[in-house]
């Protein structure tokens, strides 16, 4: 029932008093975006004025934007490497932040093949919680009655390590789920999960997924929304159900937990809720045993109103598959966040995926925007583009996000390209265009052109003894299978037809490529099973020339034509696939351990 409160917002009538406060906060903060940004920058610079970093740039206690912008450079992660290394190695002095660095958050963006280490401080957890607390009040404006049921969310923790200096290093969501902010969150009828903490926090990904799926099936009538952080995660859960429904339904039928689940706290919890339920088991079995899994989510969880998963950016590739399994349920993208900082939320979460815009919340950090005007000829610009403030971005233009955070990142380039779609009050709203320099991505892995090139080089060494070389290559993220996998098209030049590389050798080339890819890719292959074995498709000689002819026939200039290192345009892929002479898959998993290689 909507509350008629004095805090009622222009967003719509809130569902309850608590929602009214959250919506009021959104209205206030977005209405005064510029002054909030001023306050945020002043707070960050005041508290950190004595840090080594700010002292180095001779800020001398200044907290105004002009001085800040004139004295501090815009930087990337590579520029901060020395400071990050010192902190990782145990230097506890105030290098970046006056507040102690509590841990490192390991980003899915990599540097030299390893996850980037993002310093964070304790109070950032409050900021993350604040952003989370705004999501349901907004959703309740669009989907009434969510307090009458539960959310089936597949949420996981990942492995963590310690740096040489003893700081924890783990992904931001692992940090959040293990925090008291999450574990001891107060009961909120609008945000009840079917998954217990015991399942979410179980470090074994099979046991965790199994228990979360089982809980979701047991409470299937109560489930009103189904979700995961990213689309790839939800599809992994569907795949898991495909592989494990016989055992899951048996557990439900006899009321006893699969003995493969050995985690003591998980077993204790599941033993309490699992009772023989042959009727439910039969119902799930009936749906899962059909050959056709179209609409399976809506068939099993019949009361589902929407799927809560991010399908913007690299995840857009999963929309058709999600539509298939959900029978076309609405897809809600609720927030935009990263290890560096949580940025903002979607104020119209039930809109179509292509229409999603995120409103950056001005209280989360100090935001700047570097105009992103790709120069089609690749010539350097005469002068660097002028960086603009949050409220000064222009509708229709693209920018790269630059942040200054409470945790001690100053004018840091996140690497995301955003396009302004409009404003909510004075806060701009952004369409997520893409992450810079990402060629291939299946899950949270991000492989750039240089990494792919290196992987091809390393793998092609195995061809030398066959007098064969890779003359051209391109790639494609094949997400038609679950999990998806990288496909690399190779055109080979062999000088000795009596001694061409065998299937076994080309399989080893696949593995060598995987060994060369970054740790997030390898973790996806080994620990998360979110990425399938890499495939090399050898194409006929002359195929890449045909590719060029095709591009030129469509208007590309011969002088400027470069082989695309990644393809996703259907006619091009059809051309490539029609020229495939053999296909080879990686025969084993690449090496991956939670420990960093450097
Ligand atoms: P990580 O540092 O591993 O936490 O990854 C953060 C990155 O994921 C962001 O910088 C974006 O590139 C991407 N990302 C996060 N949220 C979204 C979203 N809602 N839509 C598209 N991409 C996103």
From TrEMBL:
This is Indole-3-acetic acid-amido synthetase GH3.1. Keywords: Ligase. The keyword Kinase does not apply. It comes from the Eukaryota. The keyword rRNA-binding does not apply. InterPro entries: GH3 (IPR004993), GH3_C (IPR055378), GH3_M (IPR055377). PANTHER family: GH3 DOMAIN-CONTAINING PROTEIN (PTHR31901), INDOLE-3-ACETIC ACID-AMIDO SYNTHETASE GH3.1-RELATED (PTHR31901:SF96). It comes from Gossypium raimondii (Peruvian cotton). Residues 358-435 form the GH3 middle domain. Residues 451-569 form the GH3 C-terminal domain. GO terms for cellular component: cytoplasm. Belongs to the IAA-amido conjugating enzyme family. GO terms for molecular function: acid-amino acid ligase activity.
């Amino acid at each position: 029932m909507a509350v008629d409160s004095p805090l009622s917002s222009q967003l719509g009538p809130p569902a309850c008093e608590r929602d009214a406060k959250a919506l009021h906060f959104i209205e206030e903060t977005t209405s005064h975006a510029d002054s909030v940004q001023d306050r945020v920058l002043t707070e960050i610079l005041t508290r950190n004025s004595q840090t080594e970093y700010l002292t180095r740039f001779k800020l001398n206690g200044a907290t105004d934007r002009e001085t800040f912008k004139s004295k501090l450079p815009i930087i990337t992660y590579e520029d901060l490497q020395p400071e990050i290394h010192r902190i990782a190695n145990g230097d506890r002095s105030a290098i970046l932040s006056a507040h102690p660095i509590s841990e490192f958050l390991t980003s899915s963006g990599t540097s030299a093949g390893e996850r980037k280490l993002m310093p964070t401080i304790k109070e950032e957890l409050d900021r993350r919680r604040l952003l989370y607390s705004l999501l349901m009040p907004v959703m309740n404006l669009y989907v009434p009655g969510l307090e009458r049921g539960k959310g089936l969310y597949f949420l996981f923790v990942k492995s963590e390590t310690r740096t040489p200096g003893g700081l924890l290093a783990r992904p931001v969501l692992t940090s959040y789920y293990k925090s008291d902010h999450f574990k001891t969150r107060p009961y909120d009828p609008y945000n009840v999960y079917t998954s217990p903490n015991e399942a979410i926090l179980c470090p074994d990904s099979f046991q965790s997924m199994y228990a979360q799926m089982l809980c979701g099936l047991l409470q299937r009538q109560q489930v009103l929304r189904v979700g995961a952080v990213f689309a790839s995660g939800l599809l992994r859960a569907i795949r898991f159900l495909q592989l494990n429904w016989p055992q899951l339904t048996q557990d439900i039928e006899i009321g006893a937990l699969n003995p493969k689940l050995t985690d003591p706290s998980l077993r204790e919890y599941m033993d309490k809720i699992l009772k023989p339920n042959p009727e439910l088991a039969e119902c799930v079995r009936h749906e899962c045993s059909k050959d056709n899994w179209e609409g399976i989510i809506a068939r099993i969880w019949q009361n589902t109103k929407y799927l809560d998963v991010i399908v913007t950016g690299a995840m857009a590739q999963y929309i058709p598959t999600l539509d298939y399994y959900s029978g076309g349920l609405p897809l809600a993208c609720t927030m935009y966040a990263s290890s560096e900082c949580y940025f903002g939320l979607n104020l119209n979460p039930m809109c179509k995926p292509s229409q999603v815009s995120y409103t950056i919340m001005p209280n989360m950090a100090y935001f700047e925007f570097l105009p992103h005007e790709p120069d089609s000829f690749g010539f350097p610009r005469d002068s660097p583009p002028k960086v603009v403030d949050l409220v000064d971005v222009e509708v229709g233009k693209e920018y790269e996000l630059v942040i200054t955070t409470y945790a001690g990142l100053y004018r840091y380039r996140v690497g995301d390209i955003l396009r302004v779609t409009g404003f909510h009050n004075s806060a701009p709203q952004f369409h997520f265009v893409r992450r810079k320099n990402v060629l291939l991505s299946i899950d949270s892995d991000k492989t750039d052109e240089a990494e792919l090139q290196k992987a091809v080089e390393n793998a092609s060494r195995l061809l030398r003894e066959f007098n064969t070389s890779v003359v051209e290559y391109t790639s494609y993220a094949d997400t038609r299978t679950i999990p998806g996998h990288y496909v690399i098209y190779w055109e080979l030049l062999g000088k000795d037809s009596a001694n061409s590389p065998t299937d076994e050798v080309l399989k080893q080339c696949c593995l060598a490529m995987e060994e060369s890819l970054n740790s997030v890719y390898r973790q996806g292959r080994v620990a998360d099973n979110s990425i399938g074995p890499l495939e090399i498709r050898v194409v006929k000689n002359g195929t890449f020339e045909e590719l060029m002819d095709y591009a030129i026939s469509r208007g590309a200039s011969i002088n400027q034509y470069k082989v695309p290192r990644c393809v996703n345009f259907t006619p091009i892929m059809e051309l490539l696939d029609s020229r495939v002479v053999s296909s080879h898959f990686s025969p084993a998993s690449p090496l991956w351990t939670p420990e960093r290689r450097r």
